[in-house]
Amino acid sequence: MTGADLEVDFWDVGQGDCSVIKLPGGRLILIDVGPRGCPLIEWLREGSRRSAAIEAVILTHNDADHTGSLPVLIQECRNRIGALWMLQDRPKADPIFQKTFRAALEGEREGCYRIETATRGQILWSDRARDYTLRIVHPSFTQNILAADPNDTSAVIVLEQGGRNLITWPGDLQLRTAAAVLIGQPPTMMMGPHHGGPSDYPTKATRKRMTETERPRRMQEMRDAAAALKPEWNFVSVGSRNSYHHPRPGFLRLMASQGARVICSQLTVCCDRRRLLIGNPVFEGAGALGLRSAKSGVSCRGAMRIYVKDGMLHPDEFAERHLERVRTLYRPQCLRGAR
Ligand SMILES: [Zn+2]
Ligand SMILES: [Zn+2]
Predict the structure, then answer these.
(1) Alpha-carbon distance 150 to 182, whole Å?
(2) Which residues, at least 6 apart from 299, have a Cβ–Cβ distance to it below 8 Å?
């Protein structure tokens, strides 16, 4: 598509998250930078990207599947980063927090950029003429302090135009929290949350442990949350052989039943175990889009691109082809819930 206002690439990084927003003039915004060995780094070394300004780097939280590539990113690109946004999701002395923070600090100490607090109300970027804003809507100071764990304090990033929520990155938040945060402003497109396995969506084992009253209540809350969010597009960035049992098949079906076109970056056992074992990709989105492929896992959609024009989202030209191929899977969960 030509003449888009913005291009948003949802990368396939295996287990983890990484998105790249391309602004007019070739400047970039990175939302999470994926795990160590993330293909994004090699891509940033190539061609005209070698000198592209990185307006902002935003880390939703400091888990390694979102920040693992930060040290090498800072080493190689610190001179062209405008601002780095992160939050304190763990005690100051926690080694995981320190690892990300020390990498970030290196560039700030050299005067390359400033580190900003990712907290509700902050505007990461805006285009007044076209009325686009990229803002943080979670966590507030209090939400951050009260969060039960690093996932639950994930920064939630919203790309909006004229007050309409076009794309939301809710990090690794619970589904109910995401719905509460975005109440009254549902996204047209949503990532995840939490690689398709939001921690409040109960596994079979958890459901068994719940009481007769707890179980239906929780499932009703899940349906209410999904109905409140109701995205048209739901991109789930998930690694084929992740050890967390992501995604939850029930979660994919739930989102599909709300009318969402659910798209997973990689194939997992819940859709086609045999095909996963022989390593036969469904569609290789990264190659088709000229991006770099994940170093592990089997591609389902791989990477995906959304063109944003006049406040409307247009998926790349491979959406239909991927959908056709998904139908050949043994039991594609992303289609099972679709009405
Ligand atoms: Zn994660
Ligand atoms: Zn996480």
Answers:
(1) 19
(2) 12, 265, 266, 267, 281, 282, 283, 284, 285, 286, 293
Å from CA of 63 to ligand 2 middle = 5
Helix (H, G, I), strand (E, B) or coil at 88: coil
For residue 276, the model assigns a pLDDT of 96
| 47 Cα: distance to centroid of ligand 2 (angstroms) | 32
Compute, in angstroms, the gap from residue 129 CA to the centroid of ligand 1. 34
| The two structure tokens encoding residue 334 | 């992303």
pTM of the model: 0.97
Q: Where are the domains of the chain?
A: 6-336
Whether the Cβ atoms of residue 48 and residue 22 lie closer than 8 Å to each other: no
Looking up tokens 């592990």 gives: 296
> How much distance in Å is there from the Cα of 255 to the middle of ligand 2?
20
pLDDT of residue 215: 95
| Coil, helix or strand at residue 179 | helix
Task: Domain 6-336: give its CATH architecture.
Answer: 4-Layer Sandwich (3.60)
> Ligand 1 centre from 171 Cα, in Å?
7
Asked whether the predicted pLDDT for residue 339 surpasses 70, the reply is: no
Share the mean pLDDT of the chain: 97
Neighbours of ion ligand 2 (CB under 5 A): 63, 151, 172
How many whole angstroms from 85 Cα to the centroid of ligand 2? 16
